Amino acid sequence: MNRYVKDLLLKLWCGISGIMVLSTLSFIIIYIFMKGFSSINLDFIIGAPKGVPIGSEGGIYPAIIGSVYLMIIACVFATVLAISTAVYLELYCKNEKLLKIMHLVIHCTAGIPSIILGMFGYTFLVLRLGLGRSLMAGGITLGIMIFPFIEIRVEKILNEMDKNIVYASYALGLPKSYTFLKLLLPIYKRDIISTVLLAGGFAIGAAAPIILTAAVMYAPVPRTVLAPVMALPYHLYILIGEGISVENAYGTAFVLIVLLLTMNILPILNSLSRGGE
Amino acid sequence: MYKIIEKIFSPIIRLLALCSVLILFLIIAFILKESLVIFKEVPILQFLLGRSWRPVSNTPTFSILPIILASMYVSVTAIVIALPIGIGCAMFISFFIGDVSREVLKSIINILAGIPSVVYGLIGLLVIVKYFEVRFSLVAGESVLAGGILLAIMILPYIINTCSESMIEIKKKYMATSDVLGVSKLYMISHLVLPAVSKAIIASTVLALGRAMGETMAVMMVIGNAPIMPKLLGKAQTIPSLIALEMGAAYVGSLHYHGLFAAGFVLMILLLLINIILYYIRRNISY
Question: Which domains does chain B have, with CATH numbers?
Answer without folding.
Answer: 53-283 (1.10.3720.10)
